[in-house]
Design brief:
The protein is mostly helical. It contains seven helices and six strands. The chain has a two-stranded antiparallel sheet. The chain starts with a helix and ends with a strand.
């Protein structure tokens, strides 16, 4: 017998934990700084070890964002997979793949933060949240909070999808 609400809650908690680990512990400094690079808005990266500076445009920005999103989703998969196993939850492989695809694609869309072109910046501007998106004062970073809310919303849908055909032991 499957208790879908309990499975959903467990998978959501596990994917949230995997998300936080993937975004803040697994993501490397290079990806974090370069993933929004664009030829019109290049990013200068200073290696923290060698102190060598390099300039990065669109191709490097896309590659850095892709690398980050792959490690992010891999972290989610590992955490959710191990946690589900420990809890006796069997997730259907197709549902797991669909959930991870949702997480990957929406994360990439949000994290390619090219100034003036980024998806979250555009949505924030069109919905009247542009000022909050730009806020970086008083200990608040609006773009960071909107980014987190975006990811949490999509992870909730992904966790719901992951419960499709899930069973418990």
């Amino acid at each position: 017998m499957t208790h879908r609400p309990a499975v959903f809650a467990a998978l959501l908690g596990l994917t949230r934990a995997g998300s936080a680990l993937g975004d803040f512990w697994v993501q490397n400094d290079f990806c974090a700084r370069v993933k929004g690079a664009d030829d019109k808005h290049p990013v200068t990266y200073k290696d923290p070890v060698t102190e060598k500076e390099t300039i990065h445009g669109t191709a490097d920005g896309r590659a850095a964002c892709l690398h980050h999103c792959l490690t992010y989703v891999a972290t989610q998969a590992i955490v959710a997979g191990l946690g589900a196993r420990a809890l006796g939850i069997r997730v259907h492989p197709a549902a797991a793949a669909a959930a991870l695809a949702i997480s990957f694609s929406t994360h990439y869309a949000a994290d390619r933060r090219v100034p003036g072109k980024g998806l979250l910046e555009k949505i924030a501007t069109k919905t009247g949240k542009g000022g909050f998106h730009k806020l970086a004062d008083f200990g608040v970073n609006g773009a960071f909070h909107l980014d987190g809310a975006w990811h949490h919303g999509w992870e909730t849908l992904a966790a719901l999808v992951a419960t499709t055909k899930a069973t418990t032991r």
